[in-house]
């Protein structure tokens, strides 16, 4: 089982490299191999990682229904093993898929569930991401004041925890909202 576990993790790492280079088909192939190896080694968190990666690769290729299936399966595992950090992120990913498919109320439900999970878990990073996602959804639906409050809250969290990427996202979102 140790060899299969190591193999699964190596495939995850290779998949991430492929994705960073824009080779989404190669990334999908490596995440699929990682999933098979993780399942054979009964490595549930690596399996969760591989499913999340497969979901992201599918999003990058516009295969949203397939992405939703992978993210849902990963969420099931995260909940099964009690990994609240993964749960919050996967809820955000599912919300993004619903939003891409025009299912805005489903997206809102996933984002709000992710926000609740992040707050219960004390996970400030995912709280900021959830607020940014909700803000974008509200912005797109013409709820400008609510969107601004959520973007500002996400910005404050990003600065509090020193997360530069989240800070940049929040500033970008605030800029877009103020331009409208």
Protein architecture, described:
The protein has 180 residues and is mostly helical. Helix content is 88%, strand content 0%. Helix 5 (84-100) runs parallel beside helix 7. It starts with a helix and ends with a helix. The mean pLDDT is 95.
Total of helices: 9
Helix content range: over 70%
Q: Could you tell me the radius of gyration in angstroms?
A: 17 Å
Shape: globular
Main sheet attributes: strand count, strand direction, barrel closure: none
Q: Total number of β-strand segments?
A: 0
Average pLDDT, rounded to a whole number, is: 95
Low-pLDDT ranges? none
Structure classification: mainly alpha
Describe the structure in brief.
This protein is mainly alpha-helical. It has helices spanning 2-20, 24-41, 44-60, 64-81, 84-100, 104-121, 124-140, 144-161, 164-179.
């Amino acid at each position: 089982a140790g060899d299969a576990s190591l193999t699964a993790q190596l495939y995850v790492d290779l998949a991430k490299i492929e994705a960073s280079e824009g080779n989404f088909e190669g990334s999908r192939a490596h995440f699929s191999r990682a999933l098979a190896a993780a399942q054979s080694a009964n490595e549930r968190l690596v399996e969760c990682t591989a499913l999340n990666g497969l979901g992201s690769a599918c999003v990058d290729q516009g295969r949203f229904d397939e992405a939703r299936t992978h993210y849902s399966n990963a969420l099931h595992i995260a909940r099964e093993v009690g990994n609240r950090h993964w749960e919050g992120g996967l809820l955000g990913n599912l919300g993004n898929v619903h939003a891409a498919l025009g299912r805005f109320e489903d997206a809102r439900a996933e984002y709000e569930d992710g926000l609740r999970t992040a707050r219960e878990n004390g996970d400030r990073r995912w709280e900021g991401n959830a607020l940014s996602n909700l803000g974008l959804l509200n912005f797109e639906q013409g709820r400008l004041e609510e969107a601004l409050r959520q973007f500002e809250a996400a910005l404050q969290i990003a600065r509090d925890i020193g997360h530069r990427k989240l800070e940049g996202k929040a500033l970008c979102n605030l800029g877009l909202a103020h331009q409208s």
